[in-house]
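ok here's the first one, seq then C-alpha cells
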Amino acid sequence: MPTLEALVERKIAALQPPLAVTLPGGRRLGPLPAAVTLVLQDLRALVHLATGQIGRVAEDYVEHRLDIGGAPRDVMRLAVQLIAADPTGEQRRSPLAAWRELLGAGRALARHTPAADAQQVQFHYDVSDDFYALWLDERRIYSCAYFRDTGMTLAQAQEAKLDHICRKLMLREGERFLDIGAGWGGLLLWAAEHYGVRGHGITLSRNQHAHVNRLIEERGLRGRVRMELLDYRALPEDAPFDKIASVGMFEHVGRANLPVYFAKIRRLLKPGGLLMNHGITAGGTRNRQLGAGIGDFIDRYIFPGGELLHVSHVLREMAGAGLEMLDTENLRPHYARTLWAWSDALESRLEEARALAGERVLRAYRLYLAGSAASFEQGWLSLHQMLASAPSGDVGQGPMRGAQSSYPFNRDYMAKR
C-alpha cells in the first residue's frame, strides 16, 4: 500500500503549473523549479493535500501549519485541480446527520437573531476600514462590479454597477429609497446625488455607520440621506418606500430566515414599488455549502453565519412573500473579475495590510479573495441581480394596463444612457 508521501507525490506529478512540497523534515516532493511551493510545518497538512480538502489546506496556511509561495492565480489553478470532487455536488449525509438537521431548524433560526447577525457582520466588516481601503476602490464598494465595457477600471465598473442598479429601479427625484446593508454608502450616496432620491440606509457595522454619516455631513446631504445602525427586522413599516435595494446583504440572512426577510421587504414596499435584491448565490442546486472544506473555511475565517442558496430557491421564497420577479441577471463573470482586481490590489500592498490587520487576517483574506475569484470562474458560485415588484392589485387603464407596478413592458429603459 503506497505511503501518504507517495500518494501526494503521484497526485502532484501531473499538475500544471508545477507544485513542489517541502515536508517538515526537509524532504522535497515535486519538480524543480516549481511555480508554487508549499512548505509544511505540520504533517496534518499533507493529509489534507492528499484528500483534496482544499479548505483545510487553506486553514493550515492561516494557522501557520504551512507556507505558500507563488502568484495567487497559479495557486488557485492548482487548487482547482487538487479538489477530489465537484464542490457544488450534493454532500453525502448519513440518516443520523439528516435527522439532526431536522432537529436543528430551531438552532438555524437562533444563529440569525438580530444580536447574532450583528456580531457576525461586525466580525467581518469591522476588521479595519483602512485595511479595506487598501484594496477596494475609492468609494469602498464591496460588491460585484459591472464591467459594462471591457476596458473599464475597477472604479469605473463599480460606478457602472451603481448606475445599473439605479436604472433598473427607475429611481426618480423625491422618491423614498431604502438601502438594506448599505456598506460604506456607495449606492446610497450615488442614488441621492445622481437621482435626487431621499435615501435611508441601514447597516449592522459600526465602522460603516460612522463612515457614511461622516460622508453625509461632508457632502451636505443631511436631511436628504439618513444612515442607521439597525437590523432590517427592526425597520418601522408605517411609511413604506418607493424603491428598495439590498446589495450583498441577503447572504447573511440564512436559509431559515429567508421567508422573514422577503416578507419584511414586501411590507416595506409601497404597492407597485420595486426591489433590487443583488447577492451571491450557490452554483449547485443541492449543496448546503461548498465542499472540499471550502465552506467551512469561509464560515470560520471570513463570513460566520453566511449561507448561500441557489437562485431558484431565492426566487421561490421571493414569490412566496408576494413579490413578483420582473428581471433576473447573472453577473457571475463580473464578480470573478472584481475579485481578481481586489486580490491584485491587496497583493501589491501586503506590508501595509499586515500592519493594519495582522498576519493571520491577511493570510485569510489573501486566500479568500483569490479563492472566491476562482470559485466564480469555475461556476461554483454565482451572482444574481433580481428585480421584483410589490404588485399594486390595480390593473389600471391604457397602454400599461395590467402592469400593477411602474415596471415597463420591456428592458429597453435599462440600457438608455
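and now the second one, same deal
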Amino acid sequence: MKYKSSLGLIAALFLSACTIQVPPYSADISNVSKLKEESNTPVSVGKIESEKKLNKISLRGSPLVSSVGNSYGEYIESALIQELKLAKLWSGVAKKQVTGKVIDQDIDVTGFSEGNSFIKVNFVVSEDDAILFEKVISAEHDFDSSFIGAIAIPNGQRSYVELVQKLLKNLYSDEEFITAIK
C-alpha cells in the first residue's frame, strides 16, 4: 500500500512540472473592427523577435511555452496576422511591414486570489528602408487566481491570450501606428 501511494505522489510531482503551452490565439473582434475602421491599406508582418530567456514563463514551476513555433514572438506574429487577415488588411507582399521584438513579459500566479501578467513589445512599421513607426507598446492583464495550483496554473495559461489581445488593442489604438499603416 505504501508503494502505491508513493508512486502516486511521485507521478503527481512529475506532472506538476510538465511543460504547458499557451492556448491558440483567438482574434478579438473589437480589434478587427478597429483595424477595419482605420485603414484599407494592406500590410505584411515580418519577424517579431523574442530572446531565448523570454520564451519560457514559469507558472509555479511549470514552464509555459508558446504554442506557435519556438517563441512568443512567433505567437504574436501569428496573432497579428490573424487579426489583419480578418480585417482584410494582410498581404504577404505588401511593402509596409510590421516587425518587432518582445522586450519583457511575465505571468504571476503566486497570489491567493488574483494573478497578473504584463508584456512589452517594440513594434516597428517600415516601408522599403524607411522606418515609419517605432514604439514600445505594453499591456497588463489581471485575472482570477487561487492558492490552489490546479486553478491558478490553467488561469495563468489562458491569461496569455487575453494579454496579447490587449497588447494588439493598445497597438491599434496608437494614432501614430494607424498613420504609419495607412
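notes on #2: The helical segments are 2-16, 29-38, 72-86, 149-172, 175-181. Residues 19-181 form a domain with the Rossmann fold fold (CATH 3.40.50.10610).
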